[in-house]
Amino acid sequence: MPEFLHLVPPSEALTRLLDNFHPTLEIEEIATIEALGRVSAEPVNAPHPLPSFPRATHDGYAVRAEDTYGASESLPAYLKVIGEILMGSAPQAAIKAGECLLIHTGGMLPEGANAVVMLEYTQAVKNTNEIEVLRPAAIGENVIKVGEDVVAGQEVISPGRRLRAAEIGGAAALGITRLKVFRQPRIALISTGDEVVPPDQTIQPGQVRDVNTYTLSALISENGGIPLSYGILPDNAQVLAETAGKALEACDGLIITAGSSASARDLTSEIIQQLGSPGVLVHGINIRPGKPTILGVCRQAGKSDKPVIGLPGNPVSALVIATLFVKPILRLLNGLPAVPPQPVIRAKLTVNLPSEAGREDWAPVRLVETAEGYLAEPVFGKSNLIFTLVRADGLVRIPMDANGVSAESIVEVFPL
Amino acid sequence: MPEFLHLVPPSEALTRLLDNFHPTLEIEEIATIEALGRVSAEPVNAPHPLPSFPRATHDGYAVRAEDTYGASESLPAYLKVIGEILMGSAPQAAIKAGECLLIHTGGMLPEGANAVVMLEYTQAVKNTNEIEVLRPAAIGENVIKVGEDVVAGQEVISPGRRLRAAEIGGAAALGITRLKVFRQPRIALISTGDEVVPPDQTIQPGQVRDVNTYTLSALISENGGIPLSYGILPDNAQVLAETAGKALEACDGLIITAGSSASARDLTSEIIQQLGSPGVLVHGINIRPGKPTILGVCRQAGKSDKPVIGLPGNPVSALVIATLFVKPILRLLNGLPAVPPQPVIRAKLTVNLPSEAGREDWAPVRLVETAEGYLAEPVFGKSNLIFTLVRADGLVRIPMDANGVSAESIVEVFPL
């Protein structure tokens, strides 16, 4: 029985998937120091201003600016040093006209002071407790005011923001040691195919090892998900349906890598159709590698939308298609906007890269850095050889309406 | 006592650090499926060819190519179907002249066959076990030969390679379920400063929370290291020396964020000097933010070189300097070449960005995507406000010899 594919262009396939996928995300509270890479689930507001007291930005003397006006090297202002402000403490005294206090970077300004004169613009007067100020200080000079970084109540982290070192540090500065973030999505993986055996097994003639559980686990992990393997299943409708149902019940999404045969792929399609509505959205994409891809969303009463993706069994196709279609889904499940993959490297193609018009091609390339920028060297080889991807740094897209890309063209490389 | 800094340009500071740092890396063996992002420590060679048997790349019939020569729709070649090759099994029979076997994508070619005719170029002859072949097949057509992906003994993963999904999948395909990788470096963190309190504590006037342990832990984690906090220490020489010694004994590197005062920084410098030779390499960098940075390497008899870095206590300075100087060190400790940070986004500056000539400035910017490309909007604010970094997407470098960068200039943005 020949396979029945309705090929759709890649962009339409992604649109159909995203238009039908509106998950309800769960929120959890975690320690701020563990929150790197997670996505904030609610606005974080400053419980108090930052800094919470006026601070010196240099080592020097806390002064009343007006006491220094007109000061110069030839006509210094004389101020009486009434003490030192210790780090971590409130000043012991306020200053009055003609007085100053020694202050260190980050120290708290005393009452009465409105500026800091840098140490290098002062000179001690021998055998007295006085200093000469050699330059005038403006009001606010070398001082960070209360709330200059953030004011009390200000939203400092917006929901939907991926937390980097800066956000984690900002939260710590405000004493926020726990944060509400979206729960990481659990993605179930099922490999099918009578020829597929676990990687730790010796292969017999006709058998191949399960590569997809390894590559897809890596892809899911590096995109904020938690991969869960449900094993390698034979091409058997009942076993597959049962395991797929169990996996989808326990997880937020399911990826089935179909056996290589057309009948195995039809089986996957039928099972997705049974797992919930709307079921199969796309069966076949006008792309190489990865044509026999199945994209589906399964909604069950009282549950969140869950994506169920049927990937080609071939490891290269599976990894390329996962990069293009599973990554945006993982972004959505993490609480981020789904954006298609972004090229980040522009490079000059070294040789012609042929392709068939009417189909989008993704070709593996190696990047070579030169003084004039990057060169993209195509990694030739049949599209189903996993080590072509090992040799590649990224993929170049050849649009559907092109008959390939000529040597010397500038191409955009999507890193692998 | 004023601080004694010998300011060196940032590029020279990095060179001095790297020239003096030659760590001996430890190797460990881990499960391949856990190896994402780790760096291979020895060459991986293919234990057998891949594929290990000749495979069909399409559904069709395994044939002798010569039996199909001259075949056309009007004059098809007739072949006798002697059976089917089951997935995962060696073929039950060899084929002889005039015979063929039904084969599925990924199936093993039988003896005697040297090509696969695609299903769509054949037609069953009713009530017989014969097919019509409507197109000739060339030798090797729709077949992947043994060793076409890799040959036995070939080096498939080089040492020093960061392991991505592709490498992990490639190893799985070869049955390599454990890999030798470099051990992740453990980096000790010490915060100092009498004014610094843990983030979970209520702050009193003059006190600030420890931000650096949070931001640096995040930076270390996202660059392949394991951060270990040794707490917040008072500005006390003996306590600091003892803890620093213990930390460096147990870890592969140490970062001390110095209290804000000059004397606290001098203390850090003395302690680095005592921890091993060559000790302090750079004390003061011509950069903003981050001028009072200390870079050191401490070598002890029979031990590997260990970096000891004294960062400014200010969280913004600490994070910027860590990005520029700690990241390359972490790359080396992971087994990768140390490369300075790479800009990845080119953007047009929206307004003038002033700076002082004679000093390298790093200015935070926000990126705005437009149809014409990215705009870089400077995030103004004093350089010691942590939330300027929260509002920023990256940093723009203003070279030492420039008096700032003009609006409309194209700048390179280093992502934060």
Please summarize what this structure is.
By secondary structure, chain A is an alpha/beta fold. Chain A has 4 domains: about 10-25 and about 185-335, MoaB/Mog-like domain (Molybdenum Cofactor Biosythetic Enzyme, Chain A), CATH 3.40.980.10; about 30-45 and about 155-180, Molybdopterin biosynthesis moea protein, domain 2, CATH 3.90.105; about 55-145, Molybdopterin biosynthesis moea protein, domain 3 (Molybdopterin biosynthesis moeA protein, domain 3), CATH 2.170.190.11; about 345-415, Beta-clip (Beta Barrel). Chain A has helices spanning about 10-20, 165-175, 210-220, 235-250, 260-275, 315-335, 385-390; strands spanning about 25-30, 45, 55, 60-65, 75-85, 100-105, 115-120, 120-125, 130-135, 145, 155, 180, 185-190, 195, 210, 225-235, 255, 275-285, 285-290, 295-300, 305-310, 345-350, 360-370, 375-380, 395-400, 410-415.
Low-confidence stretches of chain A: none
**What can be said about the biggest beta sheet of chain A?**
6 strands, mixed
* % residues in beta strands of chain A: 25-35%
What is the domain total for the residues of chain A? 4
Globally, the shape of chain A reads elongated
CATH top level assignment of the largest domain in chain A:
Alpha Beta
So what's the oligomer here? Answer: homodimer
Most extensive interface, chain pair and sizes: A-B, 94 and 95 residues
Strand runs of chain A, count = 26
CATH topology of the largest domain in chain A: Molybdenum Cofactor Biosythetic Enzyme, Chain A
The fourth-level CATH homologous superfamily of the largest domain in chain A is: MoaB/Mog-like domain
The largest beta-sheet of chain A arranges its strands as 7-4-6-5-9-8
Overall mean confidence score, pLDDT of chain A: 94
Number of helices, where a helix is a run of at least 4 consecutive DSSP H or I residues of chain A: 7
Q: Give Rg of chain A in angstroms.
A: 32 Å
Which class do the helix and strand fractions of chain A yield?
Answer: alpha/beta
Architecture per CATH nomenclature, i.e. the level-2 architecture of the largest domain in chain A? 3-Layer(aba) Sandwich
What is the rounded distance between the termini of chain A? 36 Å
Helix content of chain A: 10-25%
